[in-house]
Amino acid sequence: MENKNNANHLIRGLGLTACTMIVAGSMIGSGIFRKPSSMAAQLMSPELLIIVWVVAGFITLIGAAVNSEIAGMISETGGQFIYFKEMYGDFTAYLYGWSVLSVIQTGSQAAIAYAFAEYVGYFFKFPDLPKAFQNFSLYMPLVGNIHPFVDFGTKSIAILCIIFLTGINYVGVVFGGAVQTVVTYIKIGTMIILSAVLLIFGRGNVSNIYTGFSMPQESFPTIFAAVGLALSGAFWAYDGWNNLTFVSGEVKNPQRNVSLGLLFGTLIVIAVYVLINLAYLYVLPIDEMAKSPLVAASATEKIFGNLGGSIISIAVIISTFGALNGSILSTARVQFAMAEKNLFFTTLGKVHPKFKTPHVSLVVQGIWSAVLVLSGSFDTITDYVMFAAWMFYMLGAAGVFILRKRMPEKHRPFKVWGYPYLPILFVIFAFVFLVNTVISDTSNAMMGLILVLSGSPFYFYWKYKK
Known about the structure:
It is built from 19 helices and 2 strands. With about 475 residues, it is an all-alpha fold. The protein has a two-stranded antiparallel ribbon. Strand 1 and strand 2 form a beta hairpin. Helix 6 runs antiparallel to helix 16, helix 8 packs across helix 14 and helix 16 packs across helix 18. The longest helix has about 35 residues. About 50% of the residues are buried. The two termini are about 15 Å apart.
């Protein structure tokens, strides 16, 4: 009963603007500055590149629309954890929540914070620890030997950023939401201005964008595989769209604002991503783009010279800062909801008496994200769990059919368009994506599954303890 009372004391302080900015801000991180180069190298066709960004955005929008229908029915804090509990029961919901805390979201936070620190390092030289410390190693199960003190200066800045943003969200969801709104406005504005500058002053050529669909001289299966790899990169850049559902219990009029926030935020990101890729291509031919690891810097240097690197570094710093804040704000609510349902440590279900935030959950999440930063293994870990993340995306979309059958009379302020065809399309796409991952990246797929299932013993402990 204590947990239920605590949950009722969470403040519904997030409006539609904050909801939209949580979605957009959580999605726009470092991916849009890093992934276009590798995607260009895989596709070698500007038309295909833009098509892949649009298709990935469309698939993401379907996922957001499915979640919008469910969010209109279920407005509790915890989002998809609560959805899975209604759809499939405690066990599937627990495995999802366990995965979010143990690796999916915390691994992502570590990676985003590290990218933030790397770009801060463009302006400041971080000192290194003595070689004796750098050579120190520890064995981490499922990952191998880690070196926590390598690149310690960069890791320290990453951890300080996590601590700072955890503190921001510790003192209030309204404050955290305001920070998210301001930072997201700044980074969306920055990307639009950058795109406009490249298109107006870039002295590029429209022929870089449209080549008459001149395709690489390769077989169809190879092109199909290349598109699959490029889609994976695009999905990484679009990831984070579902973070808003985690804070449903702190949203004003959640039946309306969560649904609209998911849709508006996703549409904004699709438009921004397509626009900036058109700007990249206008300045850089596809083969030059493929050879530019930091394509945004290469494009900007065409106009501003060496100053371009500084401009893009500032843009990435702002972008990653906002994405990290959105993830920290939203993800802590998952383990809070798990504790409320007596499926996790009850302490994580406490609400701060003054700030009305899930403060213990925020602190635990921050500590674990910092540990993953020190491990330096977050890139490996996130590779492991991409399989798991898409498995849950598929289950979430399939769940809309379950809820339509189980709760036919339940009021749905928003209904997913094109039902049942668009949800079926999303489920089929996710299934094909998973099968392709198992075939092409078997070890990482299986390791991701092991990491997810590793929480099973704890589930049975809490279940039967209750």
